[in-house]
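Bug report (template v2)

What were you trying to do?
Predict the complex of my protein with coenzyme A.

What happened?
Run completed; filing so the output is reviewed.

Input:
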Amino acid sequence: MISRRDWNVPELRIDIDSDTYLRTLAERDALPLFALTDQNRLYLRKWLPWVDATQSVEDTVAFIQSTWTQHANNEGFSCGVWYKHQLAGTIGYHSVNWSDRRVEIGYWLAAPFQGQGIMTRACRAMVEYAFDTLQLRKIEIRCAVGNHRSCAIPQRLGFKPERLIRQAEWLYDHFVDLTVYGMLVHEWRQLV
Ligand SMILES: CC(C)(COP(=O)(O)OP(=O)(O)OC[C@H]1O[C@@H](n2cnc3c(N)ncnc32)[C@H](O)[C@@H]1OP(=O)(O)O)[C@@H](O)C(=O)NCCC(=O)NCCS
């Protein structure tokens, strides 16, 4: 397999607490990440549109390589989320809009890792990195209406619901409406 070195992107690690860290994905993560997706297929496909297209470890390799391309193009990056030495899910920036200094964050956790605040902490770390290191000024999180666990994350972090986009995403056999939550840098500074 082609390695990350061929993309010339550095490994990035963000420590959250003694149990939890984020790290950009590497070739050695392909098998565990595919296994995690495969084991959580039914649960993940309820809200994520790419699950059925992930049928083999090669599909996960292609995803990991796409994260390196994104990183190499200075468009943001994606990370695995590790909790107690186990890969628990992923979190990432969608393509950074540098002219507006804005980015969107997306995430998922495998079912057994829910309910412990892991993703809220991961999201807080990615928000801080975006404001402090990338010097962005706005972060958005889009959650399907009805995906209460996902909506609770931006709500818990103090994001404001800004707008509803009707029929914004096709999920296998139906459209879902999305709520866009937003956080501005000065609002974040007042919260922390
Ligand atoms: C969305 C998703 C990541 C949310 O997972 P989650 O476990 O609810 O989120 P967190 O890891 O932040 O945990 C929050 C839960 O831990 C609890 N918790 C425990 N300790 C906590 C802490 N220190 N800080 C915050 N929450 C804590 C919270 O009370 C909450 O539990 P509750 O919902 O029973 O009240 C997960 O459901 C998922 O991946 N779903 C499938 C894919 C998906 O929907 N992705 C998002 C698409 S937009």
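What did the reviewer find?
The helical segments are 30-39, 41-45, 57-72, 118-133, 148-156, 185-191. Residues 4-136 form a domain with the Aminopeptidase fold (CATH 3.40.630.30).
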